[in-house]
């Protein structure tokens, strides 16, 4: 894809701070550095989001996540945890439409990164939860 910034980074048309590369993935520091070591892992093949993945592409990308995460932990022993985030589509906060996984090291509660999930469990009865699960289950092949 000609206008994709991540394809240009992958092809080294735009400089990046590469931390890992093999024949299937490219990992580099996110320019925003939400926390020290914030890394993006992208498939070398251009796909917009998870909805364009097949099983092999998913395996190629997601089997590299532990390797890069463990490298972050070794590089930064003060790291207390990590957030692994993959946003898909604009409504889910995807801003670059080349699929990518954020690895965001966590150093403490004051590291200026937070996630909030609302609890809407009271809105769904057990019968509704069963229906939702069944609807999804029917679509898994």
Automatic annotation (TrEMBL):
Catalytic residues (positions): 100
Pfam families recorded: HIT (PF01230)
GO biological process: nucleotide metabolic process
Domain of life: Bacteria
InterPro entries xrefs: Histidine_triad_CS, Histidine_triad_HIT, HIT-like, HIT-like_sf
Ranges of residues in domain HIT: 5-115
PROSITE patterns: HIT_1, HIT_2
GO MF, one example: catalytic activity
Motif (Histidine triad motif): 98-102
Database matches in PANTHER family: ADENOSINE 5'-MONOPHOSPHORAMIDASE HNT1 (PTHR46648:SF1), HIT FAMILY PROTEIN 1 (PTHR46648)
Name under which the protein is recorded: Histidine triad protein HIT
Gene name linked to the record: hit
